Each structure stands twice: as structure tokens, then as C-alpha cells.
Amino acid sequence: MRFAKSLLLLSSFALCAFAQTTPTWDNSGNNLLNGTYYFRQVYYVLGSSNGTLSQAVAAYGTITFDGKGTFSMALTGQRPLQTENYAIAASGYGYLQNPITGDTIYGLVSQQGLFVGSDTENQQGYNDILIAAPIGANPANLSSFKGSYTAAFLDLTSGNPAYTLNATLEFNPDGAGNLGAASASGYIGLGGNQKVTQSYSGVKYIFSNGAGVVNFPASNNALLTGQYYLYISPDGNFIFGGSPGGADMIVGVRTGSGTPALSGLYYQAGVDQDESHLASGYAILDSYFGALKASAGSIVGHQRFVDLVDNGAAIDYTYTDSYTLGSNGTYSTAYMNYVVGNSGIRIGSGIGPFLGLSVALPAPTFNGDGVYLDPTGIVNAASSAPFTAGIAPGELLTLYGSNLAAGLVSAPSIPFPTTLGNVQVMINGIAAPIYYVSPGQISVIVPYSLTGAIAAVQVINNNIASNTITNFTAATAPGVFTVLQTGIGDGAILHQDGTAVTTKSPAQPGETVSVFLTGLGAVNPSISDGDAGPGGPLSYATATFTADISGTAATIQFAGLAPNLAGLYQMNVTIPTGLTAGDNMLDIGGPDSYTAEVTIPIAGTATANAAPAMVKPKASQKGAFPGNHRGTAIPPTTQRRPL
């Protein structure tokens, strides 16, 4: 009901004018954070353009939420900080005001009540990740901490990418203070893809106030050495923590009970350090939060990530990935080893030289009475990018819910009406043009006049209003329509003769093809909401875009509204030479967005050349970092020596 319907567009209704309102973030989910939580947040302050850090520090302790929008944070060993505010939407998506830095931590609350987030919008030049878990009515203790665990470990304490440590840990606490057979396998920055494997014996742990303390034997050549604090989720299936004096992070899951599954919507956060250019003297660090949807071996994901070395500001990154989950809950990509634990939580540990740590938590499930808009059900109609991606003016959205309309009704003509089947969709108080309505799904165009940082979306069915959902806005949110209408696979792309680009009729090197998409934002000359793109003069996107095919830049001849069609953008892209035959990845980048989800068949005689998934956009190379720089803000006792 997306791309195919978008090409069946007709002619004209007058639009009604509405005054735009200035919404505030939905706080109806504030009660999702309630009580006292253990937390750990690591900060990595960029020191130079080559990726070295001027500071690498950790903050940890407790956060007490009142369930109504205020909290207090107490750092271990320091006095409690002042009370701050938070706002969590019904979806679990929201933010905390950070009393440590004065910035805002954006993140999500999972099905298990865990919070993961990051200060992606900070202006102080740092990357970070924060994790918090409720202590629970019955805090973890010595005897409850037992079973088989697998964890990911990332340590940037040294401040120098050459000495970054990244490992996967396996251990078996026995409930009596013994960690059992413990092992670690991983990578160190200057070692590239050379794996280091170590085992540990005699490791002990204790518990105090619901938190564990593990002591690894002291060694200058160990991946892990000394003391680490561990915080445990109430069900015991998730752990996180790190060393008291270092800027490291551990995330782990309990394994070995039942058959693990990776399916549905997940909330995620993580830190990556691309060290593939270490020989050239630089590395690229990024951190992120977002969401992903997993189904039948395919993932469509979104990360709001900030890479201060290369891109400078946070962008919305949408991507696809694939997985084949083993019976033990593990799978690997070219960049990361993943483990899915007993409660469905997924952790990831990087594969050198692509170091990193990630955690993905199952999202809550939602349902409601009456006219109900799913809090996670506002997605890009072309890419199916998860709801955490920003909403852009002119973007075609798909809204999911229940009792949204009496039946299926499509817009009879262009411009699209703002009332269809007795249904309206209000975005910041403006009635949005509607493409079609149905009881569980609506397609609308975001008004071009959308302003502000927040978009409030509400459906009105036969004068009965739904709940209001808030999302953050963006200047652009490109999503390419696909043949399978899932956001992944071959894109909806035409040759200049109007026939489809397919495996049997692939694009030719040097040929200019038309890519159909949404989310390119503002246009010039402007048009009325819901109207068709003009046939002449053409209406161009005002933002600047890039196209990339399997790592090779492609020239964009036109980017703007598709002529004589409504709700649709078009990008004419010239296929570069030198590509390998077969399905190639087509990436589109904007000023605040990047999508890497679809493929395009390219002609030739060799085998397929689909670029690996999950390669984030990078802009330029940087100068070399000093070979012996180890960071200036880290106590010497917490520094590690390379193996």
C-alpha cells in the first residue's frame, strides 16, 4: 500500500488552513521510570581530529525517579546532585536532563524497565552511553548471581585509539562468590583483526547493596585486570558496569535457558570505534541510541548517532542488516559478534578493527481502546525506518494503530484531501494531506510548514480523537521505496524509458536512473500541501544530498518532487563505472540523515557486489595521532599497556 499506491495519483481538493501549535514532549510514560536505579555512563571527550581523547571518564551510582518527571542522581563517593527533570513518552522514548554536564540524555525504556541512552546532541564535544536498571524490591545478592553469562567489554581509558580494548567475556558465577571458568577473547587497537584470547582462574566476587564487585587478577597484559562493579537487572538476565577508576563499559546477558529469539522491536544504544584507518594515523569514534525491528533474519534499524571526528553533528542513520541466530543465541556480521540472552536482550562486541559495544532491549508492547495510535507506529512510508528517526516536512508517513478509520478509503484525486473517510490527521495542529485510511493503517504527508523540534501527531476518526504521539523533527529523512515495500531489497528505480530496474534489466554504468523516495524535505519552488510536484519548472529539494553505490560516489542530476505525482520525491542518479555486477547497495545522504537500506542491480559479468551492512557514513581522513599519547585526564593506575 506504499509505492504502488503512490503511483496512482489523480487531481484536486482545496486544503483547509490551520494554525500550527507548539507541542511539548509527551510525558505520559513518566511512570515507566520509577524508584531507584543503578546507572553507569562513560564519557569520551574528543581531543583532536585524529580521534585521540582529552578525557575518558565514567560516572556511576544511583538515580531515583519519582515517576512524575523529576529525579535525583547520586554519584558513588560524592554528595547527591540537584534534582533534575525527565520526560518519557508512552513508547518509552524520551530524555533526562543531565545534571553532570547540563546536556540532555536521549534514550528509551525497555520492556524490562531498563533505560539506555546517549547525549547525542551535546555541544561539548564528547561521545557517551548511559545504562540504568532498577534495583528492584529484592536486590541482587551473592547467591542470586549465578548461571552462564556472556558479556561485551569496551575500554577507551587510555585515550589513544591504538590501545582501545574490546572483548567478549564468558563466565559462570556459582552463587557462592566464585566466577568459575572465565575467559575473554577480543582485540586491541594496534592489533587490528588479530584476536587475543585469555583465561582467568580464581576470580572472586562479592555483593554490597545489590551491586556486585568482581576482582580479576592484576596484570599489565590482561584484557581485564583489577576491580569491576556490576549492576544486575531485577530478573538477573542482564548485567552492566565497569571499573571504578576507568572509562570502560561492560554489558552482558545470562544464557543457556531455552531457545533464544530475535524478533520484534528493540531499543538500542552503543559506542563504536572504527580503527580500520589506524595505519593512516586516525580512528573514528561514534555513539548512538535508536531502535531496530528484527523479523525472519532481516533487520531494519535506526541510530541517532554522533561522530565528532568526521561528521561533527548528530544524524539519523537508517540501515538494514541480516542475521541467522544459532541455537546458542549467537550470530556474527563482518563487524560484530552478537549474543541474544534468555530474556531476548542482544549484546554486541566489535570485531577488530571495527571495535564497539552495543545493547538492544526488547521494546514494550502496546495496545489501547477506541481510536488508538501505536506509540511506536509512526514510520517512514518508504524505508520503514523505526519511529525514533526524525520526521521531515513533506515526508510520506505510515501510521499504525487500531480503529483509525471505518474502512479502506484512498484519496480520489490530487491534491490529497485533509479529510478522508471522516478521518483527519493533525500534526502540530495542522491537518495533514491524507493518501489513504484504513482501520489499522493511515498514510499522510507531513505539512511543509512543520517547524520546531517536536511533532505531535493525532488521528481524529469521526470526531473521536486518538492519543497524541510526539516525535522529534528533522530537516530531511530520506527513504527509498522498494519493490517488496518493506524498506529493504531492490529499490523502486526506473530506467529513463520508464521500465523498472531489475535483475533481468539492470542499470548500466553511465546510465542515469530515477530513484523514487520520500523525506527530502523542503523544496523550491514550494507547493501546497498534498499537491503534485510541478512538471515545469521542476521543484528542487533545498537540501544538498549525496548518493553512494557500494562505496563509489554517484552523481545526482536531480533531487526534488516527482513531476505530476503527489507525496513522492525523485532522484536522478548516474551509475558510476567500475562497480561489480549484481545487487549493489544504494545509500542516500542528507545534511542530517543517511540511509543504507536498498540495493540496485548493476550490469556486468562478475559476481554480486552488495556492500556490507552497517558501515556508517564517513566524510574525510584525519591527521596522525601521537604514537605514545595515552590521554591526559586518566589516573596512571587505570591505564593499560598494550599486549
Description:
This protein is mostly beta strands and 643 residues long. Among the domains are: 3-24 and 367-472, Immunoglobulin-like; 479-602, Sandwich (Immunoglobulin-like), CATH 2.60.40. 1% of the residues lie in helices and 45% in strands. The protein is built from one helix and 46 strands. It has a 17-stranded mixed β-sheet that branches. The longest helix is centred in the N-terminal third of the chain and has 4 residues, at 3-6. The protein is globular. The N and C termini lie far apart (56 Å).
Brief account:
The protein is mainly β and 643 residues long. 1% of the residues lie in helices and 45% in strands. The strands form 6 sheets. It has a 17-stranded mixed sheet that branches. The protein has a 9-stranded antiparallel sheet with strand order 12-11-10-9-17-16-15-14-13, with no helix packed on it. Strands 1-2-3-4-5-6-7-8 form an 8-stranded antiparallel barrel.
| CATH class category of the domain at 3-24 and 367-472 | Mainly Beta
- Identify the overall geometry: globular
pLDDT < 50 stretches? 1-18, 620-643
Tally of individual helices = 1
Q: State mean pLDDT (0 to 100 scale).
A: 90
CATH fold-level assignment of the domain at 3-24 and 367-472? Immunoglobulin-like
| Biggest sheet character | 17 strands, mixed
User: Given the helix and strand composition, which structural class is it?
Assistant: mainly beta
Query: Could you tell me the number of beta strands?
Result: 46
